[in-house]
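Hi everyone,

Forwarding the result from last night's run.
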Amino acid sequence: MGWGAIALGLPLLVVGLWLSWAELTAVGAVAMAAVLVALVTTLGRLPHGVRLDLADRRVRVGERAFGGVVVTAPQRRTRAIGLELQVGHGRAELDVPPLAPGAVHEELFAVPTHRRAVVTVGPVRAVRADPLGLAVRRVTATGAQELYVHPRIVMLTGADAGLLRDLEGGSTRDLSDADLAFHALRDYVVGDDRRSIHWRTTARRGVLTVKQYEDTRRTQTAVAMSTDPRDYARDEEDLELAVGVLASLGVQVMSEEHPLAVLAGTNRVRTTGRRPFLDDCSALALTPDGSGTSLLGRRVAREVPDVTLAFLVTGSEPTDADLRAAARHVPEGTRTLAIGCRPGAEVRVRTLRGLSLVQLGALDDLPRALRLAARA
C-alpha cells in the first residue's frame, strides 16, 4: 500500500503543480504526507526486552515441543506491539498488549513434531506499522535456535542384540606370537619370545618349538545408509524407516561400547555420543549426489577397512540382486546384513555365506529380523 500511495501520489503532485490544478495537487500532497507520517511512525528503537526460550531442544518424533517468547517492558508504560516468530519455513504472529513499567508478558507456542527434522526456531522480529498499513518495519529482537526432532528408535536387548555383541573378539587369518586363539606349533626362530616356547613339545621332539596364535579383534561395526532418491519408491515413508533402522542399530552398538562407524550422506555421522549421533540422524535427507546402494559396500571397504559386522540400509527400490552386488565389495570375512526398507511388507530373512538379505516392513520388526539373521 505504501508503494502504491507513492506511485499514485507523486505523479499527481507533480502534474498538479505543473498544471496549477489544485485538486490534483491536494490529492498528491495528502498521499505523500500520509507516506511520510507512516515512515516516521515506524522509526525508533524497540524499547522492550525480548527473549526466546525452548523448553527442550531435543525431542522424539510425536513428542510435544514447547517454547515461549518472554517480553519485558522498560521502566515506562509501552503501547501494544506485534511480534513475528519464524518456525522453519512458517511464521507465527504474536500480539503483545500494552505493558505497565517493568511488566513481563509471555507468549507460549508449540512446534509440530510429526516428522523427523532439524527445525530452526526464530528469530523473533518486532513489527512496527502505521495505522493505515502504508509502512511496515521489522526489527530483529532475538537470534534463532535449533530444535532437533530425533527419529523413533526401537531398543535391541538380549537375544535381539546377539549380532551386535562380541565380548571375546573374533579370529582373523593373521598370525601372531601372542593372542587368545591358539593356531599351531612351529620351530623356534632366533628372535622369538622365549615365553612362547612350548616346553612339552620341545622335550618330546628335542627341538625348540613355539606356539603360534591367530589374531583376534573386537567387533568393528559399520552402518551405511543410501541417500540416493532413486533407491526410495516413497521418499518420506521409506526414508523414515531407513533412518529409524540406522538410529536403532547405532544406539545399541554405542550402548555396548563397541567401535562404530556410521556412513550416511556426504560425511560420517558423529558417533562420539548418543546425543550428537541422534542430532545428525535428525538432519539426514535424500540428495541427488548421495551414495546409492551400489556404492555402499565400496564405501565401507574404503572408510572402515577393519570392519567385522556391516549393515547396508536402503529403500524399497533395490532388488536382492542389487543388494548382493553391493555386499560383494565389503571386506572378505565380514558378517553383512543388507536391509531393504519396504513399509508394509512382511519380514523376510535369507542368509547365504555370511550375507543376510533382510526385507523390513516396520521398525518394530527390526528385533525379530535380527533374531532370524542371528540363527541363520
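The two ends are 72 Å apart (CA to CA).

Cheers,
N.
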